[in-house]
Amino acid sequence: MKKYLIALTAFSLIAITSNAQIKRNATDSLGKPSAMGMHHHKRGNEMNKPHHHHMMMNQLNLTDAQKQQVKSINDDYRNQVKDLEKNSNITLKDYRSKKASLEQERKSKFEALLTTEQKNKMAQAKKERSEKMKMMAEKRMEKMKTDLSLTDDQVAKIKKQQQSSMEQMKAIKENSSLTEEQKKEQLMDLHKNMRESMKNILTADQLKKREEFRNNRMKEWKNKRANKDS
């Protein structure tokens, strides 16, 4: 038994040390991002690219030559980011600033290779998506009003809060000085603030009902996914 306890203690110490080492690898002693930490952010960001972006790309009907140019632009961007990640002397602030510049440069190069017709298509697709989101928001608002028995005053406050949040969201997305990671972080903070502000508008009973409706929708979504995958 004594030998077992010693072995178990040793194993626990190894596990704790390993976890601590992983966390240290993400940033160095000066708070700078290591290659491992930055690579994790990059991979995570690529895996979470919006679905509508890919749909828009398909709608542009790029020629084979344009597709090759896009590939070249993306390859150059990735190589430059890799070089940036290898720089052990760079601070997190400088890394984010330089990466934001690279992202803006890639965007400019991509837009430069599009025809006028393709640019118009892209602008139209963005406009349609924006209008669709507004319609969906209005439907959600009507449903929330019915489900939670909202007063007219509450509806007005929620709409005002949503409008403010939409403007902030738009500003974040269009801020070319931010990297995709920074945009994601700020959007998450904005979403968190939106949820917190609802606590000042809804009653305790309404908040409880709202959470119940949300949990039910989540269960329905999971069931649909499970049935689809089976």
Automatic annotation (TrEMBL):
Gene3D superfamilies: 1.20.120.1490. Keywords: Coiled coil, Periplasm, Signal. InterPro entries: Cpx_auxiliary_protein, LTXXQ. It comes from the Bacteria. GO terms for cellular component: outer membrane-bounded periplasmic space. Residues 162-185, 200-230 are annotated as: Disordered. Its main location: periplasm. GO terms for molecular function: unfolded protein binding. It holds the Pfam family LTXXQ. Residues 67-147 form a coiled coil. Residues 206-230 have a biased composition (Basic and acidic residues). This is LTXXQ motif family protein. The keyword Signal applies. Belongs to the CpxP/Spy family. Residues 1-20 form the signal peptide. It comes from Ginsengibacter hankyongi. It is found in: Periplasm.
